[in-house]
Amino acid sequence: MSNHKITGVYSAAATPLNTDGNPDIGLFTEHCHRLINEGCHGVALLGTTGEANSFSSAERHMLLEAALNAGIPADKLLPGTGVVAIPETVELTKHALSLGVTQVVMLPPFYYKGVSDEGLFTAYAQTLEKIGDNRLQVILYHIPQVSGVPLSVPLISRLVEAFPDTVVGIKESAGDFNNMQAITAACPGFSVLCGADPLLLPLLKAGGAGCITATSNLVANSLRTVYDNIHDETKSAEVEAAQARINAFRTLSNSYVQIPTIKAMVGLKTGNAAWKRTRPPLVPLNDAEYAALAEGYSKLP
Amino acid sequence: MSNHKITGVYSAAATPLNTDGNPDIGLFTEHCHRLINEGCHGVALLGTTGEANSFSSAERHMLLEAALNAGIPADKLLPGTGVVAIPETVELTKHALSLGVTQVVMLPPFYYKGVSDEGLFTAYAQTLEKIGDNRLQVILYHIPQVSGVPLSVPLISRLVEAFPDTVVGIKESAGDFNNMQAITAACPGFSVLCGADPLLLPLLKAGGAGCITATSNLVANSLRTVYDNIHDETKSAEVEAAQARINAFRTLSNSYVQIPTIKAMVGLKTGNAAWKRTRPPLVPLNDAEYAALAEGYSKLP
Questions:
Q1: Distance (Å, rounded) from C-alpha A224 to C-alpha A39?
Q2: At A168, phi and psi to the nearest 5?
Q3: Separation CA B123–CA A120 (nearest Å)
Q4: Which of A93, A110, B184, B218 is deepest in the core (most CB within 10 A)?
Q5: Chain A contact for B116, CB < 8 A?
Q6: Do B111 and A145 touch (CB under 8 A)?
Q7: Residue B234: exposed, middle, or buried by beta-carbon count in 10 A (0-12, 13-18, 19+)?
Q8: Taking a C-beta distance cutoff of 8 angstroms, is the pair A24, A284 a contact?
Q9: What is the mean pLDDT of chain A?
Q10: In this structure, which long-range contacts are made by residues A206-211, counting pairs with CB atoms below 8 Å and at least 24 apart in sequence?
Q11: So what's the pLDDT on residue B3?
Q12: How far apart (Å, rounded) are the C-alpha atoms in residues A47 and A55?
């Protein structure tokens, strides 16, 4: 069996907004509970799908505290805490730890582009040393198409070697299966979690640890079916059907800009159009897009 | 004559660090005074060259306050205040205004890529409305090779039309002269300031407003010579020589990663090697690079 420190199905939870553009705390915590009830092992709040980088530090604090206050256990919360400036990544991570939340997803500093592996290693190392808490478990975050800052396999290996008890996994959101296999091969026991839902099944077969995905906002139960039954050959048809359903939702979510579309689909799932709202620079779907999305949604398996 | 609201030679000031990696306030304010004394009309602190996105909000506050406390007049300071989250861009800008600093350089939210002009317009509009201070003058910041978020000419035009007294200029750091001309043509009276020093002379001839450059950390006097004498035909040889000197410094600063190299060159200019330090993810030049840079520096005009 795997010796991964972090395995399972985690949701890159979307963040609903009020009419004034602030986080809708009630709707958010209701969503977190639904994700857990539908099968997620945990909620990776405040990531890319969660529009975290459009929220202030104070808003990030408030959302994490709200999830805990609403009864989501600390060990089921994996907030994103990586921002552009090391002192603020340190502060956000310390805040999570102060609440008993020990697992975080951490972007590299992402303003400067083309930076060296040495620079990224030093950035992560300084961050972890300044946090200085041996409870911490970090999931690195590789999403170069958004962050503009890829994490290379040599960099990942060096971080795992330097911080073996802390740097325990990676969210691979480039959707590059060869890269996931290369990381798995280079770092035995290190948890590779895919960000692209269609890769969950092949990744688990190849020794990966699970997923942190956007489509989990909609089909956590199907993701869980794949995860729980991947090694049970008698259930291969069920697993394949679940993965096909996941893929159908994912394909529809890519009809328009993904995050507004995922949010609109959560609104269609739950019957609450408040979910259509986004914070700038993201904009909600327009009426024609929403109508076409609703039509497509009604035909999903 | 031009009716630009902002014209001149501004320095994208570098930020020196202590041995502990925190800003060296004394060295920084000394540098600000030197930039003004050497001819800069103002100091555009806390920009890309200033490593602003590697500093926390608290550090940004401290640096701006230090410059004021050291006697740099508020109307000669143009801090960068644009970050990824609108509430924090609002807060940083309000902080500047509270100190009497009314001109700022503002990046768009830069985490999400491929966002629409509608989304970027809404982001800037919400930011300006939340700031709600009619003293404010904003210089937009187009540096797509770093931010990953270009500002299109139609977006700029729409912002200028919606906020004619507030959106008064742009720092064009793509180094695209055709783009600078297109903006100048689309927005009469709007100040186009180049980020690439070699373009100062041609931009001024084409109706541009000036520059905010990195090389000004080293050759502000030459930039000022170009700016002051651009329309005096009797001084064309002097202007050409000054632009050639600027270009030689710029070329050398591009020998290695630009920001660490500029900082190292300020150290060579002032005889203070403390300037070599950078904050991760940027790393200082290594010894061999520094030795070669020093050799090149000694031969500059």
A1: 6
A2: -110, -10
A3: 29
A4: B218
A5: yes
A6: no
A7: exposed
A8: no
A9: 97
A10: A206/A177, A206/A180, A206/A181, A207/A2, A208/A180, A208/A184, A209/A2, A209/A4, A209/A6, A209/A7, A209/A8, A209/A169, A210/A6, A210/A7, A210/A8, A210/A9, A210/A10, A210/A41, A211/A9, A211/A10
A11: 79
A12: 11
With contacts defined as CB-CB under 8 Å, which chain A residues touch B85?
53-56, 59
Ordered by where they begin, the domains of chain B are 8-235 (3.20.20.70)
Taking CB atoms and an 8 Å cutoff, what residues of chain B touch A89? none
For residue B263, what is the DSSP state?
A: H
The verdict on whether A290 is a catalytic residue reads no
Residue B59 has pLDDT above 50, yes or no: yes
What is the per-residue pLDDT across A98-113, written as a single tens digit (0 to 9) for each? 999 999 999 999 999 9
Those of residues 257-276 in B touching chain A at CB distance below 8 A are: 257, 259
Average pLDDT, chain B: 97
What is the rounded distance in angstroms from the CA atom of residue A139 to the CA atom of residue A194?
Answer: 12
Distances (CA, A) of B23 to A108, B265, B279: 21, 18, 9
Is B56 in contact with A115 (Cβ distance < 8 A)? no
Which secondary structure element, helix H or strand E, spans residue B62, and what is its range?
A: helix B57-69
A81 catalytically annotated: no
Q: B58 to chain A: which residues are within 8 Å by CB?
A: 87
B109 and A147: CB-CB below 8 Å? no
Whether residue B283 lies within 8 A of chain A, CB to CB, comes out as: yes
Tokens 């039509």, residue? A295
Residues facing residue B210 across a β-bridge: B8, B193
Of the candidates A274, A214, A193, which has an alpha carbon nearest to the alpha carbon of residue A18?
A274
Q: How far out from the chain centre does Cα B254 lie?
A: 17
pLDDT single digits (tens) A245-297: 999 999 999 999 999 999 999 999 999 999 999 999 999 999 999 999 999 99
Verify whether residue B290 is a known catalytic residue. Answer: no
| Sheet of B210-213, strand order | B42-43, B8-11, B210-213, B191-194, B167-172, B137-142, B103-106
CA-to-CA dists, residue B120 to A62, B84, B111, B159, B280, angstroms: 26, 12, 12, 10, 29
Q: Specify the DSSP element, H or E, that contains B213.
A: strand B210-213
Q: What is the pLDDT of residues A61-97, one digit of tens each?
A: 999 999 999 999 999 999 999 999 999 999 999 999 9
Cα B89 to Cα B86: distance, rounded to the nearest angstrom: 5
